Amino acid sequence: MTDTTTPDTVFYLDCDTGIDDSLAIAYLLGTARDRLVGIGATSGNVSAAAGAENTLRLLGLAGATGIPVALGEHHPRRGEFDGGAPHVHGADGVGGVALPVTDARLVAEDAVELLADLVERHGERLHIIAIAPLTTVARALDVVPDLASRVDGITLMGGAVTVPGNITPFAEANIANDADGAAHVLAADWHTITVVPLDVTMQHRFEPRHTARLARDGGPLAQAVSAMFEAYFDFYEPGLGVRAAPLHDPLAAAIAVGDVAVVDALHDELHVDVTDSPERGRTFRAASPATVPPSDGGRRTTVTTVLGVGDDAADRILRGAASDPR
Ligand code: BDR
Ligand code: CA
Predict the structure, then answer these.
(1) Tell me, what CATH number does 142's domain have?
(2) Per UniProt, which keywords does this protein have (predicted)?
(3) Which of 40, 134, 181, 231 fits a 20 to 30 Å CA distance from 74?
(4) 218-239 in b/e burial notation, b at 16+ Cβ within 10 A?
(5) How many domains does the chain have?
(6) Which of 13, 249, 282 to mutate to test the pocket of ligand 1 (most atoms within 8 A of CB)?
């Protein structure tokens, strides 16, 4: 139902590491370690700097510090970083789980430069997975104006199309935290753009039985992520009525890798409300005068908005994330 990546595809991950980001990283290391060619950290759940440090430590736990990690954009395209989501992910972004310090350092270039270099090096083999506010990707589109048409495509976690938002009644966090950046990315001239919104991510969850197996079957990284999920369960349990947490970011990663089947999707334009109104950050299908125009001035980009995936998504994510070496 959607364009999928091939075994030759390599991935740049943009994240705001975060509990579900951490599971997405463990999953990518378990399923596509050799194809993960760079990671950028953008402010979202935590500051870009804190997210970058978390990412380095996660890679350290998995013996994967050879993957370049770069500092992404701190402030959104308009306004300032709001301090993140400590009530969801803990003040440190990883639910208070102590991650061992690593000797690994950030690369000298920032994430925009890293992404631009990866475009030069890999061209249409490069697929972007964005699981954070879209500030860094949007900035990269400013710096490399033909970036979107030169890479394979982008898969991003964000939006709420037929369901309410999670940060306002209308808007999902990744989009709302930088609505202008998101609008800029959605208006670019991608070969493929796949949006993984709350409509589908809220339907696929880990429960304690999943995290218990993750800790039992996986290595140190999987065990740390399993421990982090206790804080994530604490946040989601009152709203869901059960001890469980949705798989927002891992689902986007699993769809990008081609491990989880898309069974229901919209193929349409997708826009972001960038007005100063209560609906700022809302994702919607029909264009309005406030919409950011397409980057090529004419053609509208068709977005694959995922509404349904295979029932086995949580099990596949578990299997992938538990595959990181001991
Ligand atoms: C998204 O927002 C962040 O809190 C999560 O990491 C995920 O990327 C869910 O709305
Ligand atoms: Ca995230």
Answers:
(1) 3.90.245.10
(2) Glycosidase, Hydrolase
(3) 231
(4) bbbbbbbbbbbbbbbbebbeee
(5) 1
(6) 249
